[in-house]
């Protein structure tokens, strides 16, 4: 087991265990097939990426986005830190290219070479530390051509399904310790350390995207069922931005 002090930037023990849990990887495709959010983000990307081009999937997992768009004539490249995920991605999407990389470090792809990029299913929220999450978006910006489109998914820190205690705790942190607000830790479902996900508000997510040089084009608020939602029923947002 890799010691904590050797964990990559933006990765804590919970995320490392999650990425390398064999039972999680084995069941990941079935989980995605059953997920309304996974269907909703594919539909959103179909609108955001209107014609075939080069697509970069940041945190590609087992390759569902690459498999979908490679079948439509896109040249797809997926990046992930998990060897186990990448092995399954290569089997799921043989028409795509997959490379190992940490999203918070320089990416193993050429700058300015992609028409589209995506970071879906709260992948950004899995990255620990605001500075590392900023690096992920800066990497996406560098990878895109001018005019390139970027789709990002983030979770809502005030979603009522988190439970009243967590929601009130986030409100309190936003008032007294805003730098610590947003990190929500849940029991690890695959036998590892607890997994912490950073949850956003819409305003904070948009500001982060803007600060990394993008221009916002569209924001779609979704419930847990993948349908449009408002208020505390918003499970998360899909954001479309453009590199000028």
Can you describe this structure?
The radius of gyration is 17 Å and the shape is globular. It has helices at residues 13-19, 22-34, 36-48, 64-70, 83-92, 123-126, 130-143, 164-176, 202-211; strands at residues 54-58, 75-80, 97-100, 114-119, 144-155, 183-186, 195-198, 215-222, 236-242. The longest helix is centred in the middle third of the chain and has 14 residues, at 130-143. Strands 3-2-1-4-5-9-8 form a 7-stranded mixed β-sheet, sandwiched between helices. Strands 6-7 form a two-stranded antiparallel ribbon. With 244 residues, it is an alpha/beta fold. Helices cover 37% and strands 23% of the residues. It has a single domain (7-242), classed as Vaccinia Virus protein VP39 (Rossmann fold, 3-Layer(aba) Sandwich), CATH 3.40.50. It contains 9 helices and 9 strands. Helix 4 (64-70) links the parallel strand 1 (54-58) and strand 2.
């Amino acid at each position: 087991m890799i010691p904590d002090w050797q964990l990559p930037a933006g990765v804590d023990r919970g995320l490392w265990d999650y990425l390398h849990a064999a039972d999680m990887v084995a069941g990941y495709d079935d989980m995605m097939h059953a997920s309304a959010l996974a269907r909703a983000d594919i539909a959103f990307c179909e609108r955001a990426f209107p014609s075939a081009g080069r697509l970069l999937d940041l945190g590609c997992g087992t390759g569902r986005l690459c498999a979908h768009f490679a079948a439509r004539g896109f040249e797809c490249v997926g990046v992930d830190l998990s060897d186990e995920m990448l092995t399954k991605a290569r089997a799921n999407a043989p028409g795509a290219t997959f490379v190992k990389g940490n999203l918070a470090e320089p990416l193993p792809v050429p700058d300015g070479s992609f028409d589209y990029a995506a970071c879906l299913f709260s992948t950004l929220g899995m990255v620990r530390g605001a500075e590392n999450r900023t690096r992920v978006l800066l990497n996406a910006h560098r990878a895109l051509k001018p005019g390139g489109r970027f789709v990002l998914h983030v979770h809502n820190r005030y979603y009522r399904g988190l439970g009243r205690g967590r929601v009130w705790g986030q409100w309190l942190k936003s008032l007294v310790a805003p730098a610590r607000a947003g990190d929500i830790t849940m029991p690890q479902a695959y036998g590892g350390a607890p997994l912490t996900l950073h949850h956003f508000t819409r305003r904070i997510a948009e500001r982060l995207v803007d600060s990394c040089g993008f221009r916002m084009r569209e924001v779609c608020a979704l419930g847990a069922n993948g349908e449009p939602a408002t208020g505390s029923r918003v499970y998360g947002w899909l954001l479309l931005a453009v590199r000028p």
